Protein backbone atom coordinates (compact mmCIF):
# COMPACT_ATOMS: atom_id res chain seq x y z
CA UNK A 1 0.00 0.00 0.00
CA UNK A 2 1.19 3.48 -0.91
CA UNK A 3 0.44 6.19 1.66
CA UNK A 4 -0.02 9.78 0.47
CA UNK A 5 0.38 12.37 3.22
CA UNK A 6 -2.48 14.85 3.56
CA UNK A 7 -1.46 18.12 5.20
CA UNK A 8 -4.12 20.31 3.65
CA UNK A 9 -2.32 20.88 0.37
CA UNK A 10 -3.99 20.52 -3.01
CA UNK A 11 -3.14 17.99 -5.70
CA UNK A 12 -3.57 14.91 -3.51
CA UNK A 13 -6.34 13.29 -5.53
CA UNK A 14 -4.44 13.70 -8.81
CA UNK A 15 -1.45 11.90 -7.29
CA UNK A 16 -3.71 9.13 -6.00
CA UNK A 17 -5.38 8.77 -9.41
CA UNK A 18 -1.98 8.57 -11.12
CA UNK A 19 -1.03 5.60 -8.94
CA UNK A 20 -4.42 4.00 -9.61
CA UNK A 21 -3.79 4.30 -13.37
CA UNK A 22 -0.74 2.06 -12.99
CA UNK A 23 -2.65 -0.43 -10.86
CA UNK A 24 -1.41 0.61 -7.41
CA UNK A 25 -3.64 1.21 -4.40
CA UNK A 26 -2.91 4.51 -2.66
CA UNK A 27 -4.35 5.84 0.60
CA UNK A 28 -4.62 9.57 1.39
CA UNK A 29 -4.31 10.21 5.15
CA UNK A 30 -3.30 12.74 7.79
CA UNK A 31 -3.26 10.08 10.53
CA UNK A 32 0.25 9.98 12.06
CA UNK A 33 -0.20 6.32 12.99
CA UNK A 34 -0.98 5.33 9.41
CA UNK A 35 1.96 7.38 8.17
CA UNK A 36 4.25 5.65 10.67
CA UNK A 37 3.07 2.24 9.42
CA UNK A 38 3.48 3.04 5.72
CA UNK A 39 5.56 0.80 3.49
CA UNK A 40 5.88 3.45 0.79
CA UNK A 41 5.35 7.12 1.61
CA UNK A 42 4.53 9.97 -0.77
CA UNK A 43 4.78 13.64 0.24
CA UNK A 44 3.22 15.76 -2.51
CA UNK A 45 2.07 19.34 -2.34
CA UNK A 46 1.78 22.83 -3.73
CA UNK A 47 1.71 26.18 -1.95
CA UNK A 48 3.92 28.10 0.44
CA UNK A 49 6.80 26.51 2.40
CA UNK A 50 5.94 28.07 5.76
CA UNK A 51 2.29 27.06 5.62
CA UNK A 52 3.19 23.52 4.53
CA UNK A 53 5.71 22.83 7.30
CA UNK A 54 3.33 24.43 9.81
CA UNK A 55 0.57 22.03 8.78
CA UNK A 56 2.88 19.02 9.05
CA UNK A 57 3.83 20.07 12.57
CA UNK A 58 0.29 20.84 13.74
CA UNK A 59 -0.98 17.48 12.51
CA UNK A 60 1.82 15.53 14.21
CA UNK A 61 3.23 14.30 10.91
CA UNK A 62 6.86 15.42 11.19
CA UNK A 63 7.98 12.63 13.53
CA UNK A 64 6.60 9.70 11.47
CA UNK A 65 8.03 11.18 8.26
CA UNK A 66 11.46 11.61 9.83
CA UNK A 67 11.31 8.08 11.26
CA UNK A 68 10.33 6.64 7.86
CA UNK A 69 13.26 8.36 6.18
CA UNK A 70 15.62 7.43 9.00
CA UNK A 71 14.75 3.78 8.40
CA UNK A 72 15.48 4.24 4.65
CA UNK A 73 12.01 3.09 3.63
CA UNK A 74 10.79 4.08 0.13
CA UNK A 75 9.84 7.75 -0.07
CA UNK A 76 8.75 9.94 -2.99
CA UNK A 77 8.61 13.73 -2.58
CA UNK A 78 6.82 15.82 -5.21
CA UNK A 79 7.25 19.59 -5.70
CA UNK A 80 6.70 21.02 -2.19
CA UNK A 81 7.41 17.49 -0.96
CA UNK A 82 10.96 17.92 -2.30
CA UNK A 83 11.43 21.40 -0.85
CA UNK A 84 10.27 20.45 2.65
CA UNK A 85 13.11 17.92 2.94
CA UNK A 86 15.66 20.72 3.26
CA UNK A 87 16.80 22.72 6.27
CA UNK A 88 15.48 26.19 5.42
CA UNK A 89 12.87 27.75 3.16
CA UNK A 90 13.01 31.48 2.41
CA UNK A 91 9.48 32.06 1.13
CA UNK A 92 7.94 34.91 3.13
CA UNK A 93 10.71 34.83 5.74
CA UNK A 94 12.91 32.09 7.19
CA UNK A 95 11.25 28.74 7.91
CA UNK A 96 12.79 25.57 9.31
CA UNK A 97 12.10 22.52 7.14
CA UNK A 98 12.36 18.81 7.89
CA UNK A 99 16.17 19.07 7.68
CA UNK A 100 16.53 15.59 6.18
CA UNK A 101 18.81 17.03 3.51
CA UNK A 102 21.33 19.84 3.93
CA UNK A 103 20.63 23.01 1.98
CA UNK A 104 17.88 25.56 1.45
CA UNK A 105 15.03 26.61 -0.83
CA UNK A 106 15.31 30.02 -2.50
CA UNK A 107 13.36 32.02 -5.07
CA UNK A 108 14.61 31.86 -8.64
CA UNK A 109 17.18 34.58 -9.37
CA UNK A 110 16.75 34.98 -13.13
CA UNK A 111 17.75 37.41 -15.84
CA UNK A 112 15.33 40.18 -16.71
CA UNK A 113 12.55 38.97 -18.96
CA UNK A 114 12.43 35.41 -17.60
CA UNK A 115 9.13 34.61 -15.94
CA UNK A 116 8.61 33.39 -12.41
CA UNK A 117 6.97 31.04 -11.66
CA UNK A 118 8.72 28.59 -13.93
CA UNK A 119 5.72 26.88 -15.49
CA UNK A 120 5.53 24.32 -18.27
CA UNK A 121 7.38 21.42 -19.85
CA UNK A 122 11.12 20.82 -19.63
CA UNK A 123 13.56 17.99 -20.03
CA UNK A 124 15.81 16.71 -17.24
CA UNK A 125 19.54 15.95 -17.50
CA UNK A 126 19.84 12.83 -15.34
CA UNK A 127 22.99 12.02 -13.41
CA UNK A 128 24.51 8.68 -12.43
CA UNK A 129 23.13 8.86 -8.89
CA UNK A 130 19.61 8.60 -10.34
CA UNK A 131 20.29 4.96 -11.20
CA UNK A 132 17.12 3.19 -12.35
CA UNK A 133 15.09 6.38 -11.87
CA UNK A 134 16.78 8.08 -14.82
CA UNK A 135 14.77 8.77 -17.94
CA UNK A 136 15.97 9.71 -21.41
CA UNK A 137 16.86 13.12 -22.90
CA UNK A 138 13.60 12.93 -24.87
CA UNK A 139 11.39 12.73 -21.75
CA UNK A 140 9.47 15.87 -20.80
CA UNK A 141 8.22 16.73 -17.31
CA UNK A 142 5.77 19.33 -16.05
CA UNK A 143 7.00 22.05 -13.67
CA UNK A 144 5.25 24.86 -11.81
CA UNK A 145 7.30 26.59 -9.08
CA UNK A 146 8.88 29.89 -8.04
CA UNK A 147 11.42 28.45 -5.59
CA UNK A 148 14.20 25.96 -6.14
CA UNK A 149 16.21 23.71 -3.83
CA UNK A 150 19.94 24.28 -3.32
CA UNK A 151 21.45 21.05 -1.92
CA UNK A 152 24.72 21.48 -0.06
CA UNK A 153 25.75 17.96 -1.06
CA UNK A 154 25.77 17.92 -4.85
CA UNK A 155 26.19 14.14 -4.80
CA UNK A 156 22.47 13.74 -4.11
CA UNK A 157 21.42 15.73 -7.20
CA UNK A 158 19.83 13.12 -9.46
CA UNK A 159 18.80 15.47 -12.26
CA UNK A 160 18.98 19.10 -13.35
CA UNK A 161 16.89 21.31 -15.62
CA UNK A 162 17.92 24.44 -17.49
CA UNK A 163 15.75 27.50 -16.88
CA UNK A 164 17.99 30.55 -17.05
CA UNK A 165 20.73 28.23 -15.75
CA UNK A 166 20.72 24.75 -14.25
CA UNK A 167 18.69 24.05 -11.14
CA UNK A 168 18.09 20.86 -9.16
CA UNK A 169 15.11 18.98 -10.59
CA UNK A 170 15.46 15.75 -8.60
CA UNK A 171 17.37 14.28 -5.67
CA UNK A 172 18.13 10.74 -4.59
CA UNK A 173 19.66 9.37 -1.41
CA UNK A 174 19.17 5.71 -0.63
CA UNK A 175 15.49 4.95 -1.10
CA UNK A 176 14.55 8.62 -0.93
CA UNK A 177 13.67 10.12 -4.31
CA UNK A 178 12.07 13.52 -4.86
CA UNK A 179 11.32 15.75 -7.83
CA UNK A 180 10.59 19.43 -8.35
CA UNK A 181 8.37 18.54 -11.29
CA UNK A 182 5.00 16.80 -11.07
CA UNK A 183 5.19 13.17 -12.27
CA UNK A 184 1.41 12.83 -11.97
CA UNK A 185 1.08 15.55 -14.65
CA UNK A 186 3.99 14.36 -16.80
CA UNK A 187 2.23 11.72 -18.88
CA UNK A 188 4.22 8.59 -19.75
CA UNK A 189 7.54 9.89 -18.39
CA UNK A 190 5.89 10.57 -15.05
CA UNK A 191 4.06 7.25 -14.96
CA UNK A 192 7.37 5.48 -15.48
CA UNK A 193 8.74 7.17 -12.35
CA UNK A 194 5.70 6.12 -10.32
CA UNK A 195 6.21 2.52 -11.49
CA UNK A 196 9.86 2.74 -10.47
CA UNK A 197 8.73 3.80 -6.99
CA UNK A 198 6.64 0.63 -6.68
CA UNK A 199 9.86 -1.39 -6.92
CA UNK A 200 12.05 0.93 -4.84
Number of domains: 1
Radius of gyration: 15 Å
CATH H-tier superfamily: Class I glutamine amidotransferase (GATase) domain
What ranges have pLDDT less than 50 throughout 5 or more consecutive residues? none
CATH architectural category: 3-Layer(aba) Sandwich
What is the spatial order of strands in the main beta sheet? 2-1-3-4-14-13-12-9
Distance linking N and C termini: 13 Å
Q: Could you tell me the mean pLDDT? A: 96
Largest sheet: 8 strands, mixed
Task: Describe the secondary structure blueprint for this structure.
Layout: E1 2-5, H1 12-21, E2 26-29, H2 32-36, E3 40-43, H3 49-58, H4 62-70, E4 75-78, H5 80-83, E5 86-89, E6 95-96, E7 101-107, E8 118-123, E9 125-126, E10 140-145, E11 147-151, E12 157-162, E13 166-173, E14 176-179, H6 187-198
Parallel strand pairs: 1-2, 1-3, 3-4, 4-14, 5-7
Antiparallel strand pairs: 5-6, 7-11, 8-10, 9-12, 12-13, 13-14
Amino acid sequence: MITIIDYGSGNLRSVQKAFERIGAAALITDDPQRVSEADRLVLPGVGAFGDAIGQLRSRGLVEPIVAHLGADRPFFGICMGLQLLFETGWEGGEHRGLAILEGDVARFDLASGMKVPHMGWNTVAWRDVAGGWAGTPEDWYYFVHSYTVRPRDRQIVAGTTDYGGDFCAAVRRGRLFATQFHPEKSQQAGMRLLRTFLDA
